[in-house]
Amino acid sequence: MTPRAYSFRDAELRSRALRTLNRVGRQLAKIGVELPSLASEAIVRAAEKRAKSPVRGGDSFREPLARYLEAVHGEADLNSFGRLAVKGMLVESLRNRFELAGWVHEHPEIREERIQSPWVIVGLPRTGTSLLSILLGLDPNARALMQWEAENLIPPPTLATAAEDPRIADSARQLARLLKLNPAIGAMHPFGATLAQECVALFMYDIRTLGVETQAYVPSYGRWLQSCDMRPAYVQHKMALQALQSAQPTERWVLKSPNHLWCLETLVETYPDARIIWTHRDPGKVITSLASLNNALQRMFTDRRDHVAVAEEWLSKSRFAIESGMAYDDRAGDGWCQHLSFEDLMKDPIGAVRRIYSHYGEAPNRLHLRRMEAWMQQRGRHSEGRHVYDPADFGWSYDGLAADFGAYRERFQIARE
Q1: Fewest Cβ atoms closer than 10 Å to its Cβ: which of 39, 68, 136, 236?
Q2: Picking from 64-68, 180-184, 413-417, which range would have the lowest pLDDT averaged per residue?
């Protein structure tokens, strides 16, 4: 059967109940009543109530929360469902932060956990980062961050309880509801409670992350994020890994997020022995796909229909990420990371993993190779549908994007697709 094709235009809100909620919300807004409240203190109080922890882990989240909410109020034009979704996202992020801080306060030995030589994949989305993180995570001596763990961190799952942890089923149900509401995004991005998650989810605990920008059009927050100090977010990131590792020991983590390209100095400062992999792909395909994905993610939450503005915002973010990474590449010199082309990864995924290990003087062990071979044979393709996108939807062309990113393509010898 030919899988259904989805574009961002298929991500409309079709739930009759939620559309009624939005109509009521628009009427209330006309008389100055906007529900639910997106006031900073209301969000913090709700998170504290849910966390049942008096420990906050500092107040570094205050400024990014204020910056984000200011942008939401002034730029996002959220509907009532969108306000509910954004409030829930922020409350849950801070709940995780407060619970993590409380858990580490009660178990101070967690801070002694050493996060050694983690694999860190820093390429833009749509460059093969999900596939690579899955293959690296099949190493029996490594582990990736799971989606359900990032959503509900404390108490950290143990070796004795992880297989049957009820939070897995809770996460799966939430994701199923999301995909039922918006099936288009299931074709655009892999979702699953036990799939590897971008470690950007741990930055959510400090509200300094690209993750919150996927939910709403907030360009002023995005500009602030590009220049802010990311150290507080990396403090949360490392402490979360330490908590998870204390309950389920591992020799190495497999991490991935394009957000790291913004702040490679801070990444290396936090994890000096990180094994960094920068994946590269024709930016025309990458950025057009990314523009479509983020329009689809935001479409249900807003009455705005300016898909070009959203696309231009993610074009700007991608340009900033690439230019930041190239500037660091100039400063750091050879050897700070391994560069991997999407073409080479797709042509021979297991061979690519072999070359990555070889770069660091190692080789995948026999069990890891067998696991990768089995996974490649067993994996499904396009099970949720196909993502289709066209640069013309956003006023672009592939030739124009190729020229715009010519210096990047030339430096890393990136072929046009």
Answers
A1: 39
A2: 180-184
- Whole-number Cα distances in Å, 241 to 202, 205, 269: 9, 13, 16
Residue 101 lies in a domain: yes
Question: Is residue 82 a part of any domain in this protein?
Answer: yes
Burial class from Cβ neighbours inside 10 Å (0-12, 13-18, 19+) for residue 180 reads exposed
Is 417 inside any structural domain? no
User: Where residue 64 falls among pLDDT bands split at 50, 70, 90?
Assistant: very high
Residue position matching structure tokens 């070009």: 308
The pLDDT value recorded for residue 202 is: 95
Of the candidates 191, 145, 186, 194, the one whose C-alpha atom is nearest the C-alpha of residue 168 is 194
Is residue 341 situated within a structural domain?
A: yes
Give the pTM.
Answer: 0.94
Q: How high is the pLDDT of residue 30?
A: 87
Q: How far is CA 272 from CA 114, 172, 174, 396, in A?
A: 12, 35, 36, 40
According to the model, what pLDDT value does residue 251 have?
Answer: 95
Q: Give the structural domain span for 120.
A: 5-411
How many structural domains compose the chain? Answer: 1
